[in-house]
């Protein structure tokens, strides 16, 4: 599916979606006003539900992360390559479920560190989908990028999950 035109995020300023390249979709976003607004789910609410927000790879078990990738339909990845990818990541957020000590949601962004960034690998364990974790990681990664002054933000997305992103803009 091809989306083009101007859309509005409920928690952000207008976002522009451009023609995708290859069979994946890259959505280019321009954030005119980089104002931090409240999240759909607060950090406190996430914590009260047993979720821990993590912004570093410390304590991130790559085999467990890989199992989330596989659960959402990505091919199994070599954990050594995941490690290299994470070393070249500018911003990341993962959510750990306190009961199991496993990642249940993840997103990361790469870019030039100044002007541009692309958000990649947004995944939520199917068991935890529908409770706002996908939106939670996207909102926080975008905010971190905006805080760094990066306002040209694109999202790399599989076509089959565009339905998730549509309500966000």
From TrEMBL:
SUPFAM superfamilies: Acyl-CoA N-acyltransferases (Nat). One of its GO terms (molecular function) is N-acetyltransferase activity. Coiled coil: none annotated. Residues 51-169 form the N-acetyltransferase domain. It comes from the Eukaryota. Gene3D superfamilies: 3.40.630.30. The keyword Ribonucleoprotein does not apply. InterPro entries: Acyl_CoA_acyltransferase, GNAT_dom, NSI-like. Keywords: Acyltransferase, Transferase. One of its GO terms (cellular component) is cytoplasm. This is Acyl-CoA N-acyltransferase.
